[in-house]
Amino acid sequence: MTKQVAVILAGCGVYDGSEIYETTLTLLRLDQLGIGYHCFAPNIEQHHVVNHLTQEVVEGEQRNVLQESARLARGEISPLEDLVADSFDAVIVPGGFGVAKNLSDFASASNNMQVLEALKESLVGFRQEAKPIGLMCISPVLVPRLLGDGIAVTVGNDPAVSGAISAMGGLHRSCVVEDIVVDLEHRVVTTPAYMLATRISEAATGIFKLVDRVAEMMD
């Protein structure tokens, strides 16, 4: 496998970490295309822990984002600060509320959000070297803060989230669940995934298109 993609995770589980289906579908498609990958996550405490059965916050419990992300990566994962852009051809960030709670504070701050400094530092090299960057579900909200103004992205058609993206200087494009938005100039590919998906097959169609386009842009 000559091509390598970095995959950035934010925990394990849709409500307080990375979305499990989105992550798995991303890794599956990369493997199907013969592209190598390695996962990274910040070595920090989660914003909070959510009981995924009741969707309620578990008071008094704390978990580590890197340790939880290791569940998805089957232990093959490194701290985010170890990510070096020169070692990879592209980077992909699956969604899940961990993006809005652990990688940033978007869940509470909306368009006043701050992004985790380690994430900014990790993606600088990809931006400077014009390497493809793929983001899905809620993670495109990070783009204005991470990569700059005027970059076209999609989260589907959510008015509150798309409005926040615009308020931060981004360009939101409406998109159906099975499709992608590509900003060729800035080398950014996005798809709504579970911002819109009601079935795993719907999410898979858009995610596979995203991975395929990222792969094409690596050539």
What do these coordinates show?
The protein is α/β, with parallel strands linked by helices. It has helices at residues 20-32, 65-72, 98-101, 106-109, 117-128, 143-147, 159-167, 200-218; strands spanning 4-8, 36-41, 50-51, 56-57, 77-79, 90-93, 133-136, 152-153, 171-172, 181-183, 188-191. It starts with a strand and ends with a helix. 51% of the residues are buried. The model has no long low-confidence stretch (mean pLDDT 97). InterPro entries: Class_I_gatase-like, ElbB. Displays glyoxalase activity, catalyzing the conversion of glyoxal to glycolate. Keywords: Lyase. It catalyses: glyoxal + H2O = glycolate + H(+).
CATH domain fold name: Rossmann fold
CATH class assignment: Alpha Beta
Number of strands: 11
β-sheet strand percentage: 15-25%
By DSSP (H or I, 4+ residues per run), the number of helices equals 8
Q: How do the SSEs run, as a string of H and E?
A: EHEEEHEEHHHEHEHEEEH
Protein name: Glyoxalase
Keywords: Lyase
GO molecular function, one term: lyase activity
Catalytic activity: glyoxal + H2O = glycolate + H(+)
List keywords for this structure.
Rossmann fold; seven-stranded mixed beta sheet; 34% helix; alpha/beta; 17% strand; two-stranded antiparallel sheet; 219 residues
